[in-house]
Amino acid sequence: MALGTNGYLLAMDRLVEILPYLTYIRYNISAANAARYGQIHGCSEKCFERVIETIRESVRIKRTERLTVTIGLQMVLMPEFADQILPLAFLGKSLGVDYFVIKHCSDDENGTLGIDYKKYEDMIDILREAEAHSTNEYLVKAKWSKILSGGKRRYTRCYGPPFITQFSGSGLVAPCGMLFNSRYKDFHIGNIAETSFKEIWKGDRYWDVMAKIASDRFNPQNHCGTLCLQHKVNEFLWDLLQDQTKLSDTRNLVRPQHINFI
């Protein structure tokens, strides 16, 4: 079990109950001071201190109780947020979290956010400087493969959803989050508030939708937004089917952390 949260509504007095049962908890934060936090997150500046105190308390509980939970920070980087990269790297270290990851920002199929992915190339030096603040206890990492992808896909089939199926807050089951909207109802599979996921998974509707999205009737280069959750899975599976990569023998390799989380 893992948790991704902005931390604001996470009650500090419940952390001691929650943290022992989590593999990891990731706080999504894209600014390192109250003023920029308010601007970027679209909220009151007062929210910043509350979130920081929650993160700090999480670290304290982990150390006091000697928990194995991984505590991290994640920045969703848009080009105009570049001024916060280094301050967030410093903040993560000062808070004592285990890692700080910097990821791209995904846009929808209509380019609503208007992200200029070419501008990420101007941030290579500052991202490398941020990574240089890593220590044996604290990792700073940029998601380079997506940040420098230009927002482009090299594959024309979508094979990833059976490996990462997404549920909306309403319980809706769909191949991915970008297809939650009602205008994509032809891809909606079921609802876990009404039917167990095991039943949905075993049903004809599930496999019909998965077959459709992997067929030549659906091209993610044209139908999808940029850099979706399933992007890296799709890249690997595409290369595997195109005989451009091979499955490695992993029996003698050290298992990575969080092996059950793709």
Brief descriptors of the model:
single chain, 262 residues, five-stranded parallel sheet, three-stranded antiparallel sheet, 8 strands
SSE pattern, N- to C-terminal = EHEHHEHEHEHEEEHHHH
Distance between the termini: 13 Å
Largest sheet report: 5 strands, parallel
Number of helices: 10
How do the strands of the widest beta sheet line up side by side?
A: 1-2-3-4-5
Q: Give the integer mean of the pLDDT values.
A: 94
Compute the number of strand runs. Answer: 8
**Residue runs with pLDDT of under 50 for 5 or more positions:** none
Strand content range: 5-15%
Rough outline = globular
Helix content, binned percent: 25-40%
Category from helices, strands and their pairing = alpha/beta
Radius of gyration: 20 Å
What does this molecule look like?
The protein is of the alpha/beta class and 262 residues long. Helices cover 33% and strands 12% of the residues. It has 10 helices and 8 strands. It has helices spanning 15-18, 34-41, 46-65, 85-95, 124-131, 144-147, 197-202, 204-213, 220-223, 231-241, and strands spanning 2-5, 24-28, 70-76, 99-103, 139-142, 166-167, 172-174, 190-191. Strands 1-2-3-4-5 form a 5-stranded parallel sheet. Strands 6-7-8 form a 3-stranded antiparallel sheet, with no helix packed on it. Helix 1 (15-18) links the parallel strand 1 (2-5) and strand 2. Helix 4 (85-95) runs parallel beside helix 5. The model has no long low-confidence stretch (mean pLDDT 94).
